[in-house]
Queue: 3 jobs
Job 1
Amino acid sequence: MPHNRRTSDPRYGNRPTMKDVAAQAGVGLKTVSRVVNGEPGVTPETEKRVLEAIEALGFRRNDSARVLRKGRTATVGLVLEDLADPFYGPLNRAVEEVARAHGALLINGSSAEDPDRERELALALCARRVDGLIVIPAGNDHRYLEPEIRAGVATVFVDRPAGGIDADVVLSDNFGGALGGVAHLIAGGHRRIGFIGDHPRIHTATERLRGYRAAMAAAGLAVAGSWVSLGSTDPDRVAAAARSMLAGPEPVTAVFAGNNRVTVTVVRVLAALERPVALVGFDDFELADLLRPGVTVVAQDPAALGRVATDRLFQRLAGAGLPPSRTELPTRLIPRGSGELPPAN
Amino acid sequence: MPHNRRTSDPRYGNRPTMKDVAAQAGVGLKTVSRVVNGEPGVTPETEKRVLEAIEALGFRRNDSARVLRKGRTATVGLVLEDLADPFYGPLNRAVEEVARAHGALLINGSSAEDPDRERELALALCARRVDGLIVIPAGNDHRYLEPEIRAGVATVFVDRPAGGIDADVVLSDNFGGALGGVAHLIAGGHRRIGFIGDHPRIHTATERLRGYRAAMAAAGLAVAGSWVSLGSTDPDRVAAAARSMLAGPEPVTAVFAGNNRVTVTVVRVLAALERPVALVGFDDFELADLLRPGVTVVAQDPAALGRVATDRLFQRLAGAGLPPSRTELPTRLIPRGSGELPPAN
């Protein structure tokens, strides 16, 4: 029987089948089934090939039958953090694409960085009977989700860990990335390096600060109190912090910016200065390479964060009885000029 | 009776009341009520003051009582277009903020620019009993929403008009903005101007093309077929289109880019050229002013689009029996250098 026999079956019209996907991807039917149902045992490369074949063929799982069979709604909820932060764009889109490849509808809502809104939204999505929930947490206490998780709502945290509960989490190596970025500045001759980050209640902010401190300590460099500033990423706050550490008797010769919102403001402050000040930013951002100098960054892979988290969610939904896991994705230093400026005297 | 009497009422704990909001904003109680309930008759300035007071005091309408009274869910749905296009960030956030100020929960989903997904998602949100729907349309036929609208789901379209139904729409002056941007290039001495835009099935793309053609015609300039390219905003497609119109016997000396995704790619292509080519882009984007030359743009106000559309939605929900309206917001030309480069010979 040729592999595409069922595509010519009138009952299915021209809709592609799993067998078509298997043939296109050059893998076995069981592998396609594993990917579609989110089961383990498929390498990332193979999964990518299968997902590309699914996309190319326009394959759609027959969801209505599935929902009837499993008592599910084929809907997944995503609690976003900030709708206007471009970092989350590729992450959100990756979640959507994986959900779509699994035949699930994705419903989002944004916490706008407010723990109360996160809770309200997550519970509202559960009340609307999502099968699973992906949360970019704003708060540090997620015990409110325990009854939902017990009731069967698969839950995966991404970008930041859950607080007070044991749940799957997928995040970047924030500590190691910041450590590497600051070590890069130190290797370039800098001794007075500033750190400007997000609110200290945010996990990524404190992890990156920890990386900064570890790099400075490893090089035997003391950190003046005026060189560290955590708080809102509001441009006025960040610009004031940058100007403050660039002035005074011990001005910094380099700045490590704790996330893309901070970096963009620091770029503006530095562009108005007469002397060159080195800059490395956590997070890549659009056009960073076209600025003069190009902005050196510690890049996360936001799409991979979203993809891995959603894969994990569908593994749980497929009934894989695995213990909660913590996945940390590596970051990548991209030198573009700003981080390679020598210290000015 | 002091205005804050009820805040000390134990039944309400310390929750601020509408009277507190009125006092803080320096307006009457009826005005606050109008804003909270989305009724007409409040100037934008006053509304802004009331919304700021609501935010400052942390005022929340008592929704459970309201839902019981009106049979509503206090949930609004937003059909997004592309989660990774930064243009929509401020629009989405404005929708969220206005919904929040009205005590409503916002649930989003993204069509990823696919009409089938838009339809699937809009109907899924209706099935989950949203009171109202804001749609950034991907498709051109919205008759599928007619039964929902008849059943009472308030629906407002934003950024692009609805197709096949008569519904509220809030959009930018796409025609006028493009016309002004191209006229600006012509005033600078350009005669051979290229246009690179989005898919011709997208309303904004064709409106902006119409503006380009009108400006060229008004100046008595013929448009060579090779100067116009519509299609996907995929960087490879856009870069190829730009390179093609910059080569050949009649190369363009200026490019008008049809949206921010196109502009960013054209900036990259032009940065690699030896001769200067002028550029005006539709949509402002982050860091446009820090590039060298700064990028001249025709700026929309995406936050205002979201705000006006959501105001309209809550006016409908408040029962204002108004006929469907079309609101067009003006655009603004921001000269930054790239659009003021003279034609190279």
Job 2
Amino acid sequence: MSNADRILNPALRSKIMSADEAAALITPGANVGMSGFTGAGYPKAVPLALANRIDAAHARGEPFRIGVWTGASTAPELDGALAKVNGFAMRLPYQSDPNCRKQINSGEMEYTDIHLSHVAQYAWFGFLGHLDVAVVEVAAVLEDGRLLPANSIGNNKTWLDQADKVILEVNSWVNSGLDGMHDIYYGTRRPPDRRPVPINAPGDRIGDRYYTIDPSKIVAVVETDSRDRNSPFTPPDANSKLIAGHILDFLAHEVRRGRLPRNMLPLQSGVGNVANAVLGGLIEGPFEDLTAYTEVLQDGMLDLIKAGKMRFASATAVSLSPDAALAFNNDAHEMKKSVILRPQEISNHPEVIRRLGIIAMNGLIEADIYGNVNSTHIGGTAIMNGIGGSGDFARNAFLSIFMTPSTAKNGAISCIVPMVTHVDHTEHDVHVVVTEQGLADLRGLSPKQRAKVIIENCAHPDYKPGLRAYFTRALEESPGRHTPHLLDEAFRFLPEWKAQQASRAAE
Amino acid sequence: MSNADRILNPALRSKIMSADEAAALITPGANVGMSGFTGAGYPKAVPLALANRIDAAHARGEPFRIGVWTGASTAPELDGALAKVNGFAMRLPYQSDPNCRKQINSGEMEYTDIHLSHVAQYAWFGFLGHLDVAVVEVAAVLEDGRLLPANSIGNNKTWLDQADKVILEVNSWVNSGLDGMHDIYYGTRRPPDRRPVPINAPGDRIGDRYYTIDPSKIVAVVETDSRDRNSPFTPPDANSKLIAGHILDFLAHEVRRGRLPRNMLPLQSGVGNVANAVLGGLIEGPFEDLTAYTEVLQDGMLDLIKAGKMRFASATAVSLSPDAALAFNNDAHEMKKSVILRPQEISNHPEVIRRLGIIAMNGLIEADIYGNVNSTHIGGTAIMNGIGGSGDFARNAFLSIFMTPSTAKNGAISCIVPMVTHVDHTEHDVHVVVTEQGLADLRGLSPKQRAKVIIENCAHPDYKPGLRAYFTRALEESPGRHTPHLLDEAFRFLPEWKAQQASRAAE
Ligand SMILES: CC(C)(COP(=O)(O)OP(=O)(O)OC[C@H]1O[C@@H](n2cnc3c(N)ncnc32)[C@H](O)[C@@H]1OP(=O)(O)O)[C@@H](O)C(=O)NCCC(=O)NCCS
Ligand SMILES: CC(C)(COP(=O)(O)OP(=O)(O)OC[C@H]1O[C@@H](n2cnc3c(N)ncnc32)[C@H](O)[C@@H]1OP(=O)(O)O)[C@@H](O)C(=O)NCCC(=O)NCCS
């Protein structure tokens, strides 16, 4: 199918233009809502053209920066390109791009890290300011002007509804056979007019197949033909396999105790290699008839579906490695029998997550001995990616599992620490912590009881003595003994703390 | 109405006994689910008798401790009495009793602090272990064995369902004219069988007026005739009035900007004097036709209802000062036209809170310059009360407001600090911080932008220079500048930190 066949609405055909022409419609200071979720469905041409335009303006000494709102992380062609030209005044709600991260952590750009389920409603509520432009990738424009979504939905519905002007990218690489995979829920309202979201199982369809949009808002249509860019997963390493093993043992134990049905409850799996390895482990595991209600469909889930182990997966984006993405695109017609893509306010909706009883599995940077989790900050100050949907899932899950290797940087840093330097998931939201060393089941435990199982089950042997010593001394010296701490050395495990101490000593 | 008229079921009449006899049915090591929510509806006789029994056992050198699960905080006759005799092995999910707090913070008893909306489901899921006995206050026993609830619901439905044995206290002080005020929802299920909670407005009735229970589980019925014990509110001080004023100005501003309807959205108001003062402020404010969807009905809300300013309030407990409680009890028949009491998993349900779009107003102990909030810990180690429902509301609210005087202990401690020593509400869950100094609107802001408004608008003038200096130095010296920090002195504002430094120096 050529791109011409994809833009069937005559009025919109007349708005076809180049990416440069479209980018020229975006003015300095604008807030721009872009499509894109974990490397899928982001616009591939306009952000690059815009980055060139910004670069040229800067070269002329003219200020030119914009605010960019997306679904989640995008790709080098968007976050990377705009960060490199210092084009971001503000970025929300999630990113994972090295250049973008560098700009944020050097203090050059502002970044607002928001629960992914909150973003669309904040835009509707007027909490984020005015949305000037939307730049959204779609797979096709129907004759009546409705739009066939591409490989991610994210906040697209909201950007299309809220923006003054809309720029479409129509990507003919996306197999239009995925028509029917999407479920765009138009039933959301602002309070006090909200009603229940009527999803009772991961496969329930409650919305439309297409975006509906006022065509008069569309100011440009840009044709593209390029695939989503994703990084391959590394094959699971020994640690990931150990982590996966501990989780599978735990889930099997929960089934035996009658606390979980035989086919589990719907799975949510975070981003990253460890999460993918756990899904890989399920292929050989005893569980059948699985479902997923999650943010992103990774390779591991696709494998489960293909192996007949997973019946259905609901997500907001297809985030696959290059080979898997190709296969998925070719099989779109088949895949839509077992995959549904929804707006992220629905894929991550607290109401639905709690109702379905999700088993949530997410990565972490540090966990402390009392069960608080840091998912976002290195050394308490530098952003890694962002909280993403992990808070939506962890808080409302049936089981909230956090996983990590016990050390980072080749063993130089313990991921289990006395006190985390930043909290994304509080002690009230973490049921299980698991490392390659073992699993700590924290349900119903007091802080001191948690400290014992986290240190003994999860910490690396090299760091156990230090953690035990901290906890023992805290038990004796802490002013309060509900959550015993030595405030002046709670961060001493951190290289950043040591460096600061050293630099003060040298002063 | 005498107590005899209150126990109409013949089988249950035959189980009437003394509190001592009933307490004798509770054995060492038992997990006991008790009624009680913020000083309302707690059992008044059996816990005291049990405390005596425990004390006597300890005097004989016999071990005797129990686990106690409640709705929320109770009263001296329950938490105080059992703490004094060291009778708690474990307490959950919330307390606010001085003796209990002392036991927890000295490390003598374990305390598990849980989101109030999570407790009932954790019990159902089997996450808390086995529930041996329930001790629940009710207002009457109907002829068919159903039970008329008293002044709080909390987790009573769940305790009655889950416990092996049930001890009832029938309190004839409670006006049975409140029959019809309660709404006990029996539609909850375990996943995967859950369905939407069909509440679309604070006044929607979705359940039964009475608890249903298998009468064969009831092992004792104890008659009581005593009022709920609540502490009076202190009249609003100057700071509380200033805080209330800032919040009312902000809400009026939001109405003018079209972000809030004229009659607001349903209010949730936390415990404490400041919260009560804000409600007091609304009486003179411009808002009409208010509603509340909250945990506890305080004096301030009752006044709003009586003044015709508030149309309807939904809560799980009536937590009034002594005079207001007396008036409420006398007017029960009238009050039930505008008040509904629900189980706490419904009053605090994330699904319902998000749907209704609550304006949540809660107290805090410390907020940091980046918008993280500590509601529970003094100096990071000693528990004050617990997170209560503040997380349920803050995370899912339309507007999440946290309020505090800018200093504590007569100005000796700044409640605005560089880094909180414990996080209950993360930077992602806090829209507004307000002190008597002013209000910081954090919506959509990055961490560094938040720091500026929190320091300038909320900090006390005595602490502003120190906070500014910290932030400025952190901007220069912090390894990462997304959330700039000096890890080795982030807690230096705390007396506990200073004390630890001093004691190390003396070593
Ligand atoms: C927390 C998170 C970064 C872990 O990612 P991961 O790929 O599973 O884990 P890794 O072990 O590869 O860690 C990622 C990086 O952080 C570093 N890191 C991890 N723990 C660290 C620590 N305690 N100190 C310093 N660096 C650490 C790793 O060394 C690695 O760095 P590199 O990229 O320079 O090699 C990731 O899960 C995340 O961004 N989570 C938040 C969002 C989320 O949960 N999304 C899914 C929800 S739906
Ligand atoms: C946070 C909370 C303790 C504040 O209570 P409050 O009555 O509004 O506030 P106060 O200013 O009276 O503070 C209570 C005590 O904490 C102390 N305190 C407050 N801030 C402090 C600080 N930064 N450092 C040390 N002590 C502090 C006060 O001095 C006071 O101590 P006292 O009882 O010895 O006089 C209370 O709101 C709470 O328990 N919140 C958590 C649960 C919750 O939010 N429930 C409602 C949800 S539905």
Job 3
Amino acid sequence: MSNSSVVELPVLQEDAPCCPPVTSAALSEADSVRMAAMFKALSDPVRLRLFSRVASHEGGEACVCDIQDVGVSQPTVSHHLKKLREAGLLSSERRGTWVYYRVEPTALAAMAGLLAGGGAV
Amino acid sequence: MSNSSVVELPVLQEDAPCCPPVTSAALSEADSVRMAAMFKALSDPVRLRLFSRVASHEGGEACVCDIQDVGVSQPTVSHHLKKLREAGLLSSERRGTWVYYRVEPTALAAMAGLLAGGGAV
């Protein structure tokens, strides 16, 4: 019936920029679930420090060997890095012995965008 | 011994702007505790929606009566608003029958500042 072989796929929410600043519009229920999961990943002090160590590392990428000195055991570091990956905040790549982590810029921009617009204080 | 009656108080961390963007510097342990508590307050979808409803409400202020229609009971709304207050994200004021909520601009700016600098995606 269609005159085109191109199927229009629904826009995946994961790829859409999210969201307008909280100061300009109330969040939808779906967006609140998605964004709350990202904030949850940053709600633990050790996890937040690991995230900041990756984000601030030279070249925007860190070997787990560069960032694991945060006062907890190596398995705990791995657990937290896994949570950050699952929440879409970090990506990882194994190279030889080590796993390298990068911040997912889309996730960081989504969180920053949501909280922006409060103005300087 | 002092030639001045003015006592220099240490700068309270609560009043200091926090923090450099995660992309520019790793968080200190103390700052990570403080900022993780703020993100924790936003880690629940209903709480995040309530926060966005207050933040986006006309005049930057919302009566609890304006924002409580988020699909949970009124006591649950109260519980979440209390958590947001305790985390320093909202302030409240009772006027007559109703309590009015405002976003704390310093807290919003601290979170936005920490996540800023990721660049547009």
